[in-house]
Amino acid sequence: MFSFFLSLKYLRPKRSFTSVVTVISVLGVMLGVAIVIIVRAVMTGFGDMWEEKILSFKPHITVSSWNGVIEDEEAVCRKLEAIKGIVAVSPGIEMRVLAEHRKRISAPLITGTDPERIRKMMPVSRVASGEFDLKGDHVVLGVDLAAELGLRVGDDVLIYSPMNLIKKDEIYFPEKLTVAGIYDSGQRDFDSGFIFMSMTVARDLMSLKRGAYSVHAKVAKPQDHRIFSALVQQVQNTLGPMYRVRTWQEIDQALFNALAVEKNMMVILLMFITVVAIFCVTNTLIVITVQKTHEIGLLKALGFSSRQIMATFVLHGWIQCFAGTVIGIGLAYLVLNNLQSLVDFLARLGIQVFPKAVYGLSQIPWRVVPREVAEVAVSVILFCSAASFLPAWRAARMDPVEALRRE
Questions:
Q1: Domain span including residue 400
Q2: For FRET with 316, which of 38, 166, 167, 354 sits at 20 to 30 Å CA-CA?
Q3: pTM value?
Q4: Predicted confidence (pLDDT) per residue in 352-377, tens digit
């Protein structure tokens, strides 16, 4: 108890250089903790938003045939629709094509699908203009692709089939299709890389008389690992070994692995900021032990043990780190709750810190994980306790006679 009260006494603000250094040390720990928490929250939000976009836009389960083409896609769709837990099923034909409008060319991925089934698969409410209509020669494309080609609702776009490269002895004329709708998913890869059309038009482009390249399915709980894994296994057992079943995690595994690695590396690098702040705490304790040499010698002469002296200065450093950590957590929440406003303010000043063209998202996502906040707080306090040990140990080893003589 004596060590605790003595450490509090040394923390009382006074008009001295030591008090200024103490405040700077606390502010350093505060900034280090806040930056680490903010970065981890933003990186977690990135993962959540990517996952949300993928789960809402792309299928959760993709079934393809080892032979290349699913001849009877309707039979496969009916089998999948009969499985409990699958909420939507749609056949698909995906292929890279060339799209041209007024001498502007792009190479999007066409997705031929069932016009009726796709309404359960896709978030059709995100159509920015027009309507999600795939009947006849109508197509729906993303807002970024429309801007790239200069397309608006009602315009015609020429789609060139890749079969001209595959079958060089035959000529496939481009299909003139009409833009019925333009969607805005808020994610650049989706808004700039896909054109949706009916199965009939897609078959004409790919020279298919019937069948599909794949069958897509959406499930009720794609993020519940246990239920989803059991459902995928049931799909594989139902269709048999002639079909390949892939999940959304497998298809976009590279993306999520990259996000996880980037998050870990950012946290490791930014932890060095906190380590530097902790060294400031160590320097503060060294200055205090030098200034309090006389008091330390007097306390030891009065019979206070080295352990009590050492505990005093360890607690002194620990309290600094604890205060900096608590204030840092509060600062992190304050910044995160106003993060988008800060970014918008910088954008008005002409500073683009989060352009959609680079990051592919329309706003900064973030989510604080309490476990990660606890990990940061515990790590900082443990490091600080270890860093306080050296100056505290030096103070505890002082000879009271020598300490009093210096004064």
A1: 2-52+255-406
A2: 38
A3: 0.70
A4: 766 666 665 567 788 999 998 998 88
Same domain, 245 and 263: no
pLDDT band at 293 (very low <50, low <70, confident <90, very high): low
- Secondary structure, 3-state, 236-278: HHHHCCCEEEEEHHHHCHHHHHHHHHHHHHHHHHHHHHHHHHH
Q: Which residue has the tokens 């749609």?
A: 90
Q: Does residue 318 sit in the same domain as residue 380?
A: yes
The one-character DSSP state at 135 is S
Question: How many CA atoms does the CB half-sphere of 401 hold within 13 Å?
Answer: 0
Closest CA to 180 of 146, 234, 131, 222: 131
Q: 15 vs 6, 58, 63, 313, 399, CA distance in Å? A: 19, 63, 73, 20, 29
Question: How far, in Å, CA of 280 to CA of 274, rounded?
Answer: 10
Amino acid type, 362: S
CA-wise closest residue to 135 among 159, 105, 114: 114
